[in-house]
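Fold this sequence, please.
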Amino acid sequence: MLLLLFLAVLGQLPFSLPGDSAVTPYFVLMAVFYWGLHRPDLVPAVVVFLVGLLQDALEGEPFGVNAFVLIAVYWFVSSQQRHFGDRPFVVLWLVFALVALVAEALRWLLVSTLTTTLIAPWSVTFEYLMTVALYPVLTIAFVLAQKTLPRGGGDFMD
């Protein structure tokens, strides 16, 4: 739970794009996907929802957008544990890429609709690409953290 809070705050540190735009990877999405798939017992849905609301407040997005997107992702991955839990890392990375694509598109659509302002698609695309590219790095940290927890499970990164 503390990790999700830390990642929500870390997600406020911008990476610069050409043209002075600032974009950050969707760190919380990475954590929700990983923990929802491997240890949903450690991250209850209410925590995911509250962290989503915190992220909305920190980013100045319409209240509830991140909460809705993160809960949808959490529900999907935790309900698919038996299908994806034992898969090799490359398969999980591809599944994450698809889930992140849908999550980013939904977030873009909701923010654009609720603010009646079209959000620049290139910034969302760049955020998506950074999120997918950094997922393996954060997964290594998540796996190491999982090994220190009770009922830790094994390393799936084969």
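Helices lie at 2-10, 27-38, 45-59, 65-79, 81-84, 89-115, 121-148. Residues 152-158 have pLDDT under 50 and may be disordered.
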